[in-house]
Amino acid sequence: MSSMSVGEIGYYKGVHRVKVLTESEGYWIVEALEEFDDDVDGERVTVKVGEQRIVPSESVHRRKFLAPPVKEHAYELKMEKKLKRLVADEEKQDAEE
Question: Is residue 81 part of a domain?
């Protein structure tokens, strides 16, 4: 986030408190102010207090917030609707008999 400055406290991924140490093109070097779990190349890693990480600048925010919920894949939603419709039709047929 370009409005953040070096030495400022921010929130990594909108949740975890970090201090911005330095900035480079598109990335920040931040220091963790609290312990948290992070994903690195698909692996879960525990980040300890005081540990430094290189993170994309857009992942550090001024205020704490929760990320929006992840939307399900359109195919999964379509199949879920189809399954519900089939179950409802089956129940309707059983009720008529």
Answer: yes
Q: Which regions of the chain does DSSP assign to beta strands (E)?
A: 9-12, 16-24, 27-32, 36-40, 43-47, 52-56, 60-61
- What is the tens place of the pLDDT at every residue in 30-47? 999 999 998 888 888 899
Phi first, then psi, for residue 32 (nearest 5°) are -70, 130
* DSSP secondary structure letter of residue 5: -
For residue 62, the enclosing domain spans: 9-96
| Spatial separation of the C-alpha atoms in residues 25 and 54, rounded to whole Å | 11
What is the residue whose two structure tokens read 């991924």?
13
DSSP-derived secondary structure letter, 42: T
Strand partners for 44: 39
Q: Which two structure tokens, joined as six digits, stand for 94?
A: 């059983």
Structural domain count, the chain = 1
Report pTM: 0.59
90 within domain boundaries: yes
Residues linked to residue 19 through DSSP beta bridges, in sequence order: 9, 31
